[in-house]
C-alpha cells in the first residue's frame, strides 16, 4: 500500500501526485497542510513536512520518502513503467537540472503570491497584502518568460520526452492558475505545452481539486482555455 501525505494546492505535493499518477500507482491520499502537518509526517523526523510517501508495497518493507526528490527517485527506482527520468544520461541530467530550477525559482512565487491567495481563503480576517501579491506576480512573469522559451524550442520542458521537469513545472503553474494568476497570453508556446499536459489522466485528477471557500478560475480545468 502507498500513502501520500500532501496538501492539495502545494506545488510539491502536486509534483508527487503527478509522478504517482503517471506511474499509474494506487495511492491513499491523506491531507497534511503545511501549517498543520499530519501526525505521521511529524513523526518522520526533525523538519519533516509533506509531501511524504509511505510505501509498504515492495520487498524492502516500510519505506518513508519525504519530499518530492525522495518520492520521485523512489518510485522511479521501484516502478519501471512510464519513466520520469530519461534513459540517456545527458537528457536525464537536463531533466534533473530543470526540476531543481523549477522548485528553487518558483519558491518565491509560492511564498508570496500563492501563500497570500491561500491566506485570504483560510484566514479572511485581515486585508490582502498587496506587496506580497505584486512581488509574486512580478517573479512569476520572469519565470514564464524562461519557460516559454523552452517550450518554443522543445516538445517537452526537459527535452525530447516527458519527464519530471514537466511534472514539476505543471504542478507549480497549476497551483498558481487555480486563482487565475498565470498570464497565458504572455507565454503562448508554454500555453500550448500546458494544454498538452492538461489532457493527461494524471493531470486531470489534479485539476479536479477544489479548495473550500474558493472556486478556481473559469479556465482552470478547461482543455480549450
Low-confidence stretches: none
**Classification by helices and strands:** alpha+beta
CATH class of the largest domain reads Mainly Alpha
Overall tally of structural domains: 2
Q: Beta-strand percentage?
A: 5-15%
SSE pattern, N- to C-terminal: EHEHEEHHHHHHH
The biggest beta sheet reads: 4 strands, mixed
End-to-end span in angstroms? 37 Å
Major sheet: arrangement of strands: 2-1-3-4
Number of strands: 4
Helix content: 40-55%
CATH topology of the largest domain, anyone?
A: Glutathione S-transferase Yfyf (Class Pi), Chain A, domain 2
Distinct helical segment count: 9
Based on the coordinates given, report the CATH architecture of the largest domain: Up-down Bundle
**Over the alpha carbons, how many angstroms does the gyration radius reach?**
17 Å
Summarize the structure in words.
- The protein is α+β, with helices and mostly antiparallel strands and 225 residues long.
- The chain folds into two domains: 2-78, 3-Layer(aba) Sandwich (Glutaredoxin), CATH 3.40.30.10; 89-200, Glutathione S-transferase Yfyf (Class Pi), Chain A, domain 2 (Up-down Bundle), CATH 1.20.1050.10.
- Helices cover 51% and strands 8% of the residues.
- The chain contains nine helices and four strands; from the N terminus they run E-H-E-H-E-E-H-H-H-H-H-H-H.
- It has helices spanning 11-22, 39-42, 68-78, 89-105, 107-122, 130-153, 164-177, 188-198, 201-206, and strands at 2-6, 28-31, 52-55, 63-66.
- A four-stranded mixed β-sheet has the order 2-1-3-4, with helices on one face.
- Strand 3 (52-55) and strand 4 form a beta hairpin.
- Helix 1 (11-22) crosses helix 7 (164-177) and helix 6 (130-153) packs across helix 8.
- The longest helix has 24 residues, at 130-153.
- The radius of gyration is 17 Å and the shape is globular.
Amino acid at each position: 500500500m502507498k500513502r501520500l501525505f500532501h496538501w492539495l494546492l502545494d506545488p510539491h505535493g502536486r509534483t508527487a501526485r503527478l509522478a504517482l499518477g503517471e506511474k499509474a500507482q494506487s495511492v491513499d491520499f491523506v491531507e497534511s497542510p503545511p501549517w498543520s502537518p499530519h501526525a505521521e509526517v511529524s513523526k518522520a523526523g526533525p523538519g519533516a513536512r509533506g509531501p511524504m510517501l509511505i510505501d509498504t508495497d515492495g520487498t524492502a518493507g516500510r519505506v518513508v520518502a519525504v519530499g518530492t526528490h525522495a518520492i520521485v527517485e523512489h518510485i522511479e527506482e521501484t516502478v519501471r513503467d512510464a519513466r520520469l527520468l530519461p534513459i540517456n544520461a545527458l537528457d536525464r541530467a537536463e531533466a534533473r537540472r530543470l526540476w531543481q530550477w523549477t522548485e528553487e525559482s518558483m519558491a518565491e512565487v509560492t511564498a508570496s503570491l500563492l501563500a497570500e491567495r491561500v491566506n485570504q481563503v483560510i484566514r479572511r480576517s485581515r486585508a490582502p497584502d498587496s506587496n506580497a501579491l505584486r512581488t509574486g506576480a512580478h517573479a512569476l512573469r520572469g519565470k514564464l518568460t524562461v519557460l516559454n522559451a523552452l517550450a518554443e524550442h522543445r516538445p517537452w520542458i526537459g527535452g525530447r520526452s516527458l519527464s519530471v521537469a514537466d511534472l514539476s513545472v505543471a504542478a507549480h503553474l497549476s497551483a498558481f492558475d487555480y486563482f487565475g494568476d498565470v498570464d497565458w497570453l504572455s507565454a503562448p508556446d508554454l500555453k500550448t505545452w500546458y494544454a498538452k499536459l492538461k489532457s493527461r489522466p494524471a493531470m486531470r485528477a489534479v485539476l479536479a481539486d477544489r479548495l473550500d471557500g474558493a472556486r478556481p478560475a473559469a479556465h482552470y480545468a478547461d482543455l480549450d482555455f
